[in-house]
Amino acid sequence: MAVNGSFASPLADARMSSPKAGVLDGLASTALQGLNGWSVALSLFLLLVVYDQWSYIRNKGSIEGPLFKMPFIGPFLESVNPEFERYYAKWKSGPLSCVSVFHKFVVIASTRDMARKVLNSPSFVKPCVVDVARKLLRPRNWVFLDGREHVDYRKGLNGLFTRQALETYLPGQQEVYDKYFERFVQVTEQNGGKQIPFMTHFRELMCAVSLRTNVGHYIDDDMVKKIADDYYHVTAALELVNFPIIIPFTRTWRGKKAADMILNEFSKCAAKSKVRMAAGGKVECIMDSWVKSMFDSEAYRQKVARGEDAGEKPAMLIRMFSDFEISMTIFTFLFASQDATSSACTWLFQLMAQNPDMLDRVRDENLRLRNGDRNARFTIDMLENMPYTRAIVKETLRYRPPVIMVPYMAKRDFPITDTYTAPKGSMVIPTTWLALHDPDAYPNPDTFDPERWISGDAEAQGKNWLVFGTGPHYCIGQTYAVMNLMAMIGKASLELDWKHYPTPRSEEIHVFATIFPMDHCPLTFNKRV
Ligand code: HEM
């Protein structure tokens, strides 16, 4: 046997070598004897667990939430595969409730009034999207600006969503719908006339429409397809709570790679748009519209500087932005719209297939506005005069709101109620579902009833209409989003027949950044004759 074959510590050896040691010495050495590396680590760990629980309970205060949290990670594993029912149970548990995941304390504001309070308190909170979004969109992106800076930047973008601007984007959108509607029919044919889940096809369609609207023809169809495919990784990276660092080959890593690729492409588009707009080209997309107003502003400024008659002052004087700045901002439009519009599009097709009488009314309205010519192109006038199609879109957005949570961050201690203050640094998440399913505002809220927007008083329930948020960060693309969905479903009603194949999971909700039918919407499409 080896001489030093025991695990006795040097301290133990010391005690044995000192038989005359006193009682105190004995006690001290017994205590010290336990102080090997493992026990120090264990004690530290226990201290941290206690601290973690203590700080959770202190932050939780009087609001709803589990009494104890799973040490450190909290319900992280649940948030990897979020279930709608769990979220719903949380919202129903109280107007304010909480969880703590890793280092993040999260306050959930569920009711209409709590959600509105958060969204309308810019001096206490700012949007934080989700943690990883900052890495994907880049920390210097305008959506992370706060206060005056945010207001000023946003003013410069408002011109991109006026009636006049939206009109210039319509031809590009028609072109995309023409192509994809044909493709939907082909997909069904290639599948032997059998149904397949269409959610991913709708996501691609919405991405293609977004890209055409945002960057026109500066990217070709192959790149549209590549971005639509890769964008999936961006969405997948957007879980509510992520691991704090980006680890290679994880979802967040793939999302970041996809985001970098898209930002790079959009920078190239910005350079092309500058060349085309400088040469007096026609505005065809959001990027052109913005670049043109940069040039108009610059021309005005130079004339004023030279003392010349500068003519009419542009509605908004903006500075020149670099290609990458333009790219970052355009990426926010794609980012903000892609998941939300894909969700709305999927539910819209499903709901219309389930309600053929409603679809007939959409078709009649659209045909009438086209004077009976179903191939007539949609125009802005038409889209402004479709009360029934509008009601269908608004009811879809109410019944299945794409954005169910809007994460904000407390910039300082935020007294949400008289009895509860969300601590500085916590995530504060207003939710939209309960406001949009409030039976006082929308009787029989779980029934899809577009009529409430025509003969009912749904339109008067502005306080509950949180589909696009409220306050200084309300959705800048909301008019465009509603109009685009109306244009899509109106055109589809005239050119396509589609059938839904319900499954037991068709009405269940799959949370994937936004919400989708759990079975991803099995459909077949045929050309309408
Ligand atoms: C059905 C489709 C859409 C839904 C449901 C939706 C919903 C929302 C919501 C809930 C917010 C947060 C508002 C808040 O914090 O109060 C938001 C913000 C935003 N949305 Fe949308 N959105 C949609 C489509 C779009 C589209 C098509 C665009 C772009 C063209 C867009 C651009 C934005 C931007 C840039 C913001 C951030 C605004 C800011 O921070 O000032 N959204 N949207």
Automatic annotation (TrEMBL):
Keywords: Heme, Iron, Metal-binding, Monooxygenase, Oxidoreductase
Ligand binding (heme): C475
Pfam hit, one: p450
Domain of life: Eukaryota
UniProt record, GO biological process: sterol metabolic process
GO MF annotation, one: oxidoreductase activity, acting on paired donors, with incorporation or reduction of molecular oxygen
Cofactor entry: heme
PANTHER family recorded: C-22 STEROL DESATURASE ERG5, CYTOCHROME P450 26
Family to which this protein belongs: Belongs to the cytochrome P450 family.
Protein name: Sterol C-22 desaturase
